[in-house]
Amino acid sequence: MITGDNVFTAKAIATECGILHPNQEVDEGAVIEGEEFRNLTDEVRMERVEKICVMARSSPFDKLLMVQCLRKKGHVVAVTGDGTNDAPALKEADIGLSMGIQGTEVAKESSDIVILDDNFASVATVLKWGRCVYNNIQKFIQFQLTVNVAALVINFVAAVSSGEVPLTAVQLLWVNLIMDTLGALALATEKPTEELMKKKPVGRTAPLITNIMWRNLMAQALYQIAVLLTLQFRGESIFGVSKRVNDTLIFNTFVLCQVFNEFNARNMEEKNVFKGIYKNKLFMAIIGITLVLQVVMVEFLKKFANTERLNWGQWGICIGFAAASWPIGWLVKCINVPERPIFSYLRLK
């Protein structure tokens, strides 16, 4: 908190807002006056800037100096203000927020976001929805990469070994429809939760695909590859079916694996994939539509989709293979991953 008020007033307000702890002393470096901060050497200022919680009796230059120091430290800085003297800091910050009613025109023009109702609580709502959108994008990327990795490996291995691919062009187009359209719509409709606000902010250089996402998608992709390659090379002898029926089993199992994996993708860290699912009726509707369309593709569009009708036992086999992705997802989420990005270990130092 940066203010022009005296130290005692600033400390009282900061304590009431939770910025300062009641027993925190000034000599800990948490509270400083603008003049003292301004007169510090560059080295000392950069060393102490992250410890400062309250700056009292500050000038517009002190506020600007604070923003510049924090940005040099690599932080993403947001600044709020409503006066003309706040304009330099608002412009310098990564995100400037000004008040729509009490704020001056200069402050509004220098800021990135204008809070129309002058209610600072609106910022929390914006943050919650912003984190939700970012999280939903990560869910979709994880889901999409799982499908792509599995499909690529299965078709490549089958083509190299036998010269034939188990998934035809029409079937791959149908899988892409599930992945890009229905899957994206299902995962993008998840609403923000309070857990999102408890997470640490995402750093400026943090990768979009995290270690947690790699863990989840590789586990599911490897499982799908193992099952489908087993069906490709041993399915006919194991289940005593013709090649055309076996290819249909591969296609049906692959699609159902993606449907079941959508539940896993709803939350990248929560072990209970059904938590809060009743709140997202659109997700359940999309899952239902996908299943109905898959039944139509397999049972009624045989010539178009190059499939054969499956009996109840064969459908049960496909569903059983696909449903195994739930316990696998639960077990994988028990594995802790390092915070440092995987690919950072490959960089030359």
Automatic annotation (TrEMBL):
It is found in: Membrane. The keyword Membrane applies. Keywords: ATP-binding, Calcium, Calcium transport, Ion transport, Magnesium, Membrane, Metal-binding, Nucleotide-binding, Translocase, Transmembrane, Transmembrane helix, Transport. It comes from the Eukaryota. It holds the Pfam family Cation_ATPase_C. Its EC number is 7.2.2.10. InterPro entries: ATPase_P-typ_cation-transptr_C, ATPase_P-typ_TM_dom_sf, HAD-like_sf, HAD_sf, P_typ_ATPase. Residues 165-334 form the Cation-transporting P-type ATPase C-terminal domain. GO terms for cellular component: membrane. Gene3D superfamilies: Calcium-transporting ATPase, transmembrane domain, HAD superfamily/HAD-like. NCBIfam families: ATPase_P-type (TIGR01494). The chain crosses the membrane at residues 145-163, 169-189, 282-300, 312-332. It catalyses: Ca(2+)(in) + ATP + H2O = Ca(2+)(out) + ADP + phosphate + H(+). It comes from Solanum tuberosum. It is a multi-pass membrane protein. This is P-type Ca(2+) transporter. GO terms for molecular function: ATP binding; ATP hydrolysis activity; metal ion binding; P-type calcium transporter activity. SUPFAM superfamilies: Calcium ATPase, transmembrane domain M (SSF81665), HAD-like (SSF56784).
